[in-house]
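Supplementary Data S3. Sequence and structure tokens for construct A.
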Amino acid sequence: MEPCLSEVQKMVQELLRRVRSMSLDLRPSMLDDLGLLPALLWHFDRFTTQTNIRVKFRHDGLNTRFRPEVETAAYRIVQEGLTNVARHACINNVEVIFKADREKILIRIEDKGVGFDYASARASGDSAGLKGMNERLSMLAGRMTIDSTPGIGTKLTAIIPLEGSS
């Protein structure tokens, strides 16, 4: 039995909603329109609504615009880091620290969750999120370190150099 027109229309509307949501997840238009700080604040609010994990955010130096590829990388690193927190940390709050100066952006995401063995996760090749963050950073000559101890928590630190930012 074929679906009726109204069912097809509902399915199309649902697919459009999902595509819009995925597009926002990848790169919200406010990143281009308003900059990194408003986009991060929007993401933290959305993240908390979806996960019930409160984000404590401290920042310095976000009163300027950066090259689009730098803003996108910084946004996506924070996004993926928080996604990992939501999936694995088993906590109710997380701290994000963001500092920018003329030379670099420093991003730190820290939780007091269950932690993990980073060497094992990296060796298993089963950590697409960590791999994606490292790839983004390497394209910008950046670097990432992860300090995690099972039962203690995780601290992700990413540094993006800012040579040529406007």
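Construct B, processed identically:
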Amino acid sequence: MCVDSSAKNVYYALGFPNQPHTSFNYLPEVNNLSIQINFRKNINIEQYRYSIIVDDTPIAVNKSIDKTKLKDTHAGGDEEIFSSTSLGVFPIKGKMITILGYSIDKPQDVDKTIFYGKLFFKSKINHIVKQFKTDKGFDYSHIANPKEKTDIKFDEKDDLLDIVKDISDIDNMYSLSIKDRLTDKIIFESRTWKFGGYQSKDNEPYPYVKIDKNVFKKSGDYEIIIQPSIDWTNCLDCDISSKEVEKYTSRYTLSITLDEENYTKKDFLLFSIIIGGLCGAIFVAILNNRKRKAKKKIDEEIKQKQTAQLQLNSVRSQLNPHFLFNALAGIQNLMNKNDTENANKYLSKFARLTRNVLESKELISLTEEKTLLYDYLQMEQLRFGFQYTINTQADLDTENIEIPAMLLQPLVENAVKHGITEKGKDGEIAISFEKQVSNLLLKITDNGSGFDATQTYDGLGLALSKNRISLLNTVYKDTPFILNIQSDTNGTTITITLSQWL
């Protein structure tokens, strides 16, 4: 990038947590920005595409590189010669410009560069949520718009504290930390925000951080600090002082009261467990010779689980590019039809969906799974016009029940691509989350023309899902996964039963 010659406070090449292919540039005092892209000479440039988004508006989608405008340059700072071309000059003051670059043969490897020309601001806490156990499961106590000092009492039944932040376009550039006011030491810190647990009025997910109540070791005052996670030293011509940085920092005081009596009982119980564990260890040592065979069997089971886990990761790594390639093909299809308006909407949905799909978590909550499915179905609805519903049984605790990530998405994608695409607005997809005693039932129903479930097909989605469920049953032997497919000319119903999961 090139900026105004008189610009100050240029922060460049800053990183996001858990997003190794994302670069953030903070340009609060820059008026105009020139952006160019460089390629090594031996790279096939025809394989590459880029998109440009200004704030939330795409201005270039899936564009190829104009080879006639390429020029040789020593952009690498050594003897290696690069080909480079300008993407244009953009007014950046008060705006955010995002560049997405990717190769069509590896659409899952998206490089993202953000140029942020707005000022940072104090990010406020929207509400604080205390989670506690009841006879019927979990319940929540909300504190909306907390004051600078808030009183919170933890009882023995309490479990977690959620800090919910206001929504911004750069949530991941803010960090949250908790400091013990008495010792002036940081006891908790996080730069990773979760999404999907709390919805705003316009159905956008609030960012939040879960904090175990055991972080607070004693009653007293604790300070919550939310501030930009900027490497203030990685800057050109900077003169921002510590007082200036404080303008972007929000501070809240939590006055925590713990149930000391219950904590004393817990300490005694913990001590008893430790003593019992030591006695058990001595007993195990005496019987060690008799249990060698049992230990060998356990070791073999552990190795089997580790092997299955590696195979699961391999299957997941195949699902991600499979999804991304189909989504990018969808964008290209809309552009080829000159349907620019829906292509722009599709790309906006695709941006948030990509972030959730590429997360490496093994388990996600039912709430997060629903959010991912909503985003995907809304995106595909722009292309095919079908109708859909997602229903959840009332007594399911969707925030605390977790399932393997991307368990349903490939099957829902199958229902869209091979079930109801030809029906247009008459196409219907219904997804439900149900409880059956201690089993969790996940159902996907479509009114397509159906297929022979006993046959083997070339599509990756169903084959990868079957393989993944087989591997999950190796890892979760006590809670087997059961896949059932019923299909005829009136439609298809796929049910995944998670046995003894609840």
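Residues 365 and 402 are 4 Å apart (CA to CA). The radius of gyration is 27 Å.
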